[in-house]
Design goal:
CATH architecture: 3-Layer(aba) Sandwich
Order of helices and strands: HEHEEH
Number of helices: 3
Distance between the termini: 18 Å
Protein name: N-acetyltransferase domain-containing protein
CATH superfamily: Gcn5-related N-acetyltransferase (GNAT)
Number of strands: 3
CATH class: Alpha Beta
Largest sheet: 3 strands, antiparallel
Strand content: 35-45%
Radius of gyration: 13 Å
Shape: elongated
Amino acid sequence: MADALEKLTAGGWHHAVLWVLADNSHARGFYERGGWAPDGEARDEFIGPALVHQVRYARSLQKAFNR
């Protein structure tokens, strides 16, 4: 994840978002430890035949990678 965030920052991006399955507490904890936080957006989408609830996480790229 650190490599991807550095590349986004080097590309001029200042903010990043990602979607995670709402029920996946392991993944949510991973992202939260990495500085991501839910931003209040949610959606329901099909993954194959299953309808899943997702929440959007966001984080600033400027804080962590300014040198």
